[in-house]
Design a protein that fits this description.
By secondary structure, the protein is α/β, with parallel strands linked by helices. About 35% of the residues lie in helices and about 25% in strands. It is built from 14 helices and 18 strands. A 6-stranded parallel sheet has the order 6-9-10-11-12-13. Strands 2-1-3-4-5 form a 5-stranded parallel sheet, sandwiched between helices. The longest helix is centred in the C-terminal third of the chain and has 24 residues.
Amino acid sequence: MKNVAVISLGCDKNRIDTEHMLYRLVQVGFAVSAAEDADIIIVNTCAFIESAREESIDTVLYYAQFKKTGKCKKLIVTGCLPQKYMSELVESLPEVDGFLGTFDYEKIVDIVSDDGANSEAAAAQNDTDEPDKFTAAENCGRLLTTFPHVAYLKIAEGCNNKCTFCTIPSIRGGYKSRPIADIAGEAQKLVNDGVKELILVAQDVSRYGMDINSSLVELLTELEKLPVIIRLLYCYPEMVTDELIQKIASSKNIAKYIDIPIQHSSDKILKLMNRKTTGLAVEKLINKLHKHGIVVRTTLMVGFPGETQKEFDELCDFVTRVKPEYAGVFAYSREEGTAAAFLPDQVSKSDKLKRVKALGKVCTAVTKQFNAGLVGKTLRVIYEDADFDKNLFVGRAEFQTPDVDGVVYFKGNEVDVGKFYEVEVTKSDNYDLYGKITGVHSQ
């Protein structure tokens, strides 16, 4: 039996692709191990922006050393990086034994086997317009890399939004929804295996079904039949309808939480980004979500071409006024082949970094205020881990997504991973909550 290790970089969609690869490999007899003990190492890469590509290359080069110092006999690189830069990688990374793009994951068993394809044979450019191939790949089993009670569920692939800063359409192709029956079937299997929270992901979750005469609300109506919490990530603001808001607000199974990447609040910048909304429309949307008791996470981009101090100040004022409970802030990355790369008035790197730091402080203040308002309240918390340094259990409330939002630290007696508890919040800080168990939540 050979050991295989997979290092997954980038987004949750990449994580799902990694889980499919692991399942295929385990089914034919491979054992999953740490990289130090692996005969085959796979690096599943991200190529969204420059920093992600740098991380991917650095990671590949790091694990290439294991072929000299460890047990590793074969190094495979998969995902977005080879999908976009296949020919360049084959030439510049001779230490890699094989490459697979984002639509060829089903070939992973062949490429890691002794008689599998070498780098040259595996380097043919992948076709990003194969919906049947995508659906077949997603219906493959998975070996979860999350806590056993949590799973990400990919409902679509690709993107049609054509934001001027984004390379995703050139990497992942056009938008392709999975049929509801396929998604519901996978969801049922995950629930049968003990999953209690399904996190729906796609490049644009809110656009689900438009290409197959369906809708996100129809999908949610089917999924909420299952005894599982459903969480929505990556919903574009112009696609968050009143019908969707009502569905989230009224459902017992859908988390009162939504991730909406708004990117900016300035109409000038939004237009340059080719975003189909306005700052006022986004503000009204977030206010409406808050009125329905729905917590909002967003993503904000600073330093886009043409952003002056005026537009940046508008964005800071917007966050202070509208108060999205959670926000990720990042600097615009000038990507080759995108429309934004040709725009005038590019912002200097130093100004971008200053703006990331300044807006980060504004967002942290909003989250801190939100957390302070929860002190004294009792929340339903799912227990996931223990922090031995703090001597506290670690869990998440309904409005916290794994890895990106804060957590709830709490005291109590014996607890079981994946079970829900009533936790009274006694303290808060910039990101996290602290409390004590007051009871077991009836699920």
